[in-house]
Specification:
- The structure is a single chain.
- The chain is of the alpha/beta class.
- It contains 29 helices and 39 strands.
- Helix 21 links the parallel strand 28 and strand 29.
- Helix 4 packs antiparallel against helix 5 and helix 28 runs parallel beside helix 29.
- The chain starts with a strand and ends in a 5-residue tail after the last strand.
- The protein binds adenosine-5'-triphosphate (2 copies) and magnesium ion (2 copies).
- The site of one adenosine-5'-triphosphate has 22 residues, from strand 10, strand 20 and strand 21.
- The site of one magnesium ion has 3 residues, from strand 21.
């Protein structure tokens, strides 16, 4: 067995619209191609021994043990690899259930599709599954140690990729609300929503969190001063920079017990509380000095430690934090009790987990001593033995929910404090003996205000009710139903994607919105090019969706990107499918037009139920996609008598129709005429039917998004694609006594499309310079020849400089074959060199004639034409 290729899908894709995270492995079974599992001696037994838990896989029999039954009866190795890869992830704690295995057109080569939660883990599981199966085939077993290592590695991937508890809570809530989110490439930023409607978060700071508020909160002394001035109870204290000032500071705060802490510390680092002697004070001073230059000396307030979370001006959760401790059982020593407590799988390192492992520090021993213990003492059953002075979760403390207990006056005070500091999300540390009574009454204090407070003590308290604090954040960020999304219009098809995308973007611009769009030529925002290049994949889609200026996204969505990584968004508002024709067949295991149609239908299927799939009613494979999508359907047609469209309209549907020379929207009883084709430059005076079809599609896509007929008309009438904007797309040049047309048509359907225009050229003889990329199938060249014979009066057959592996002359011979098949008396010649061929055609051009060039290099062809002295660039002008 050999893995030929591993691809990672991240969006709606060929295999599933709903399951976005899939690994696709192209697997050559080699000698196992002829050997189903039941013919491999000992395979079943070896597999069950290695992975007994495969018993839980139902597979097609639909019952427990179903999959193993298939293995015993005989199934192909690709299928076994699929189930093993899923099971390995399962064993590492990642719950995945989706898998598919399909044989490709090449015998013995399979596509194995497996779901993943973590990309690296998914790819690893695929490779490990192949290794495991091969080992059982070769040796009857897979070593236990190896399996354990695999599972450990998978667990590591999973752990390393986790987001941290606060962010995790936020993205889970986003998902629950259908708010798209993505991780940006820097500073652990999370984007919620798309385009102009996006919000960003970093841990629990939002893009509304003010820098002044954050800086003030981080300066504990300044915070206290501002709060004290506002009459808020805060600890009495002072700041010193030298040990020499310590004695005086202690006196100033009223003597022992005191607290010493760094001015700008966090997570309890460098803090010592309940200091009762000079020696302790000196040591505490040194410890705080490790963290900060300036040191806070404070009165120590006796009480319990609370965290009050305020979001958007409201208290949303209150937790009491209990310092790290163990509870005696009358048998174990304190050291043993700590070890036991740390075995809790909920306790991890740092902030990764619900709880953190207890670690002892300098103050722990002091604390134990005060309680009359050492690590070797055996505390009596039921006694609590504190191990840390402060209650931070990150030092092993636990949290108890007290949201329902806080006194209304304390709520009022907390909300007021956060307003004074100026934060949208803040956590107040309050020390008080009883949170259910006003602070004033019990001498409680607000110790500090935290920007970016952690959420884990609220979403996963050790005791009490978990609070959905992330929900409050979402309510704040996306208030009063404000959408987090921007309209996404995705355009696919074999031909006309770029043209339609550009036109649709241009129409949408008439609404005054900032449109971001991606095409084969580049990515654009508004009027400007952002990045040149073939940008029709998910990365380009992300660029647009991440851009904070974009109000509408129009995305050319090509076959390659869908196949390689799936769509770059999970749902669109409009999915346009223009046509499906033979092109790129045989690439990426897409071998038939029907498979190609299935691939393109991803665009129609990944549309919201209340969105629209805009489908070509004249292309049966496209029209059939109506069955597969849950979205509303809107058809476009060049045929005013289309039965399908008539029925659709009768049922109240909407359509765009070319009728009586007009592009019209038909809805219910109404026909809204948008414009005569003749007046739309793109249609080349109405002579290019396929451009009319593209214009219908774009108009319809805009219409279902509530762009007005007037705006659509304005867009259609002002859309002029120049050579510089769309080189190689129906570029027509006036050379005085004849015209030349350059088009990058490179598949039969687009030759046909260009042909429709050429046929409408009635003033003179038509000469074609034809050829195509060498990696197309033989029959495609023959078809090209046939079409050319049908369209042109004279043909010059040429070849690309880059024959893409085809022997020189072969493509030309096939085209010639096609020509003579349909028109034995056709006038033609072969000039393999493209430059020579073009020059010959331009030399022999008759008066009022048309030279049509389908070049390999568009820029070279245009240069050759311009050398002849272009009178006027008549690009798509009526
Ligand atoms: P975190 O970042 O986890 O909030 P921190 O390093 O910012 O911690 P503080 O919040 O100032 O430190 O103090 C940590 C804990 O120490 C407080 O939550 C409280 O339990 C205790 N503490 C701090 N100052 C006092 C004080 N003056 N009196 C009583 N306890 C205090
Ligand atoms: P690519 O796959 O290369 O990105 P595309 O789908 O973006 O192509 P366009 O660049 O818009 O297509 O058009 C390329 C050529 O395809 C046009 O110049 C024309 O020859 C042909 N074409 C455009 N629209 C259609 C159509 N609706 N039907 C058939 N052919 C078309
Ligand atoms: Mg604190
Ligand atoms: Mg394109």
């Amino acid at each position: 067995m050999r893995i030929l290729k591993i691809q990672t899908l991240r969006g709606p894709n060929y295999w599933s619209i709903r399951r976005h995270k899939l690994i696709v492995m192209r697997l050559d079974l080699e000698n196992l191609a002829e050997m189903p599992s039941n013919e491999i001696p000992g395979f079943y037994e070896g597999l069950v021994e290695a992975l007994p838990s495969l018993e839980g896989h139902y597979c097609s029999p639909g019952c427990r043990g179903g999959f193993l039954m298939r293995v015993r009866e005989g199934t192909m190795m690709g299928h076994v690899v699929e189930h093993v890869a899923l099971e390995l992830q399962e064993l590492a704690g990642m719950h995945v259930g989706f898998g598919r295995t399909r044989e490709t057109a090449t015998p013995g080569i399979f596509q194995v599709v497996i779901e993943y939660l973590n990309e690296e883990a998914g790819r690893y599981a695929g490779r490990a599954a192949v290794r495991l199966c091969q080992s059982i085939v070769d040796r009857g077993r897979y070593p236990k140690a190896e399996l354990e290592q695999d599972i450990q590695d998978l667990k590591d991937f999973w752990r390393d990729s986790s987001l941290g508890p606060s962010t995790e809570a936020i993205v889970k809530e986003a998902e629950k609300r259908g708010i798209p989110w993505m991780q940006l490439s820097a500073r652990f930023l999370i984007q919620l929503g798309y385009g102009v409607n996006q919000k960003r978060m970093q841990a629990t700071m939002t893009d509304n969190t003010g820098i002044l508020g954050v800086e003030l909160a981080c300066d504990k002394e300044a915070t206290k001063r501002i709060l004290a001035a506002a009459g808020v109870p805060v600890p009495r204290g002072t700041v010193i920079n030298f040990l020499d000032d310590l004695q005086e500071a202690i006196e100033y705060v009223g003597g022992y017990p005191i607290v010493i802490k760094p001015l700008d510390g966090n997570h309890g680092r460098g803090i010592t509380i309940d200091i009762r002697t000079w020696d302790e004070a000196e040591a505490a001073y040194e410890a705080a000095r490790q963290v900060s230059r300036s040191i806070i000396i404070e009165r120590y307030y006796i009480g319990r430690d609370h965290r009050v979370l305020v979001v958007d001006g409201k208290v949303v959760a209150v937790a009491e934090r209990v310092p790290a401790h163990v509870v005696g059982n009358g048998r174990s020593t304190i050291a043993e009790l700590i070890e036991e407590t740390n075995l809790d799988p909920n306790r991890g390192e740092g902030h990764d987990n619900v709880l953190t492992k207890i670690e002892l520090d300098r103050t722990s021993y002091q604390l134990l001593e005060r309680q009359g213990y050492t690590l070797n003492s055996v505390p009596p059953k039921g006694t609590i033995c504190y191990l840390r002075a402060t209650a931070n979760l990150s030092t092993g403390g636990i949290a108890v929910d007290r949201t329902d207990e806080i006194h209304p006056e304390n709520i009022w005070l907390a909300q007021r404090v956060v307003k004074i500091i100026g934060l949208d999300i803040a956590g107040l540390d309050i020390v008080t003996s009883d949170i259910s009574r006003p602070l004033r009454e019990v001498d409680g204090v607000i110790v500090e205000v935290n920007a970016a407070p952690g959420f884990r003590m609220h979403v996963a308290p050790s005791i009490g009710i978990p609070r959905n604090v992330a929900g409050a954040v979402m309510d704040m960020l996306f208030s009063n139903q404000q959408s987090s999304r921007i309209p996404i219009l995705s355009v696919t098809g074999t031909n006309g994607k770029t043209t339609t995308t550009r036109l649709l973007a241009h129409i949408y611009k008439q609404t005054g919105k900032v449109v971001g769009y991606t095409t084969t030529d580049g990515t654009y925002i508004g009027e400007y090019l952002v990045e040149a290049g073939d940008n029709t994949g998910p990365q380009s889609a992300h660029l647009i969706l991440q851009d904070a200026t974009v109000e509408v996204a129009v995305l050319e969505t090509a076959r390659g990107g869908i196949l390689r990584s799936g769509l770059g968004f999970e749902t669109a508002n409009v999915g346009v499918v223009l046509n499906v024709a033979a092109d790129h067949l045989g690439i990426g295991d897409i071998d038939t037009i029907d498979q190609l149609a299935n691939l393109k239908s991803v665009v129609a299927e990944a549309v919201f139920p209340d969105g629209y799939a805009v489908l070509n009613a004249d292309d049966r494979r496209v029209a059939a996609m109506a069955e597969k999508t849950k979205a509303n359907i809107a058809y476009f047609t060049m045929n005013p008598d289309s039965e399908l469209v008539r029925k659709h309209i009768q049922k109240g549907g909407v359509a765009a129709v070319y009728e009586n020379g007009y592009l019209s929207i038909v809805k219910g009883d109404w026909t809204h005429r948008i414009e005569r084709a003749e007046n739309i430059p793109l249609t080349m005076g109405g002579r290019a039917p396929f451009m009319i079809a593209n214009a219908l599609a774009a108009s319809l896509a805009a219409f279902v998004q509530n762009v007005t007929i007037e705006q659509i008309r304005a867009g259609l009438k002002t859309f002029r694609a120049s050579v510089s904007q769309t080189p190689g797309r129906m570029n027509l040049f006036n050379l005085g006594n004849f015209h030349a047309l350059v088009d990058y048509a490179h598949n039969p359907a687009s030759y046909e499309a260009v042909g429709a225009f050429v046929r409408n050229w009635n003033t003179g003889e038509k000469i074609g310079v034809v050829g195509g990329p060498g990696d197309r199938r033989d029959e495609d060249f023959v078809t090209l020849g046939k079409l050319a014979a049908d369209i042109f009066d004279y043909i010059i057959v040429k070849e690309d400089d880059d024959t893409r592996g085809r022997p020189r002359g072969s493509a030309s011979d096939l085209i010639t074959k096609g020509i003579t098949q349909v028109k034995p008396d056709c006038r033609f010649e072969s000039i393999l060199d493209e430059t020579q061929a073009i020059n010959k055609a331009l030399d022999m051009a008759p008066d009022n004639g048309l030279v049509v060039i389908l070049p390999e290099s568009v820029s070279r062809a245009i240069k050759l034409i311009k050398l002849r002295g272009v009178v006027k660039e008549e690009i798509q002008q009526s």
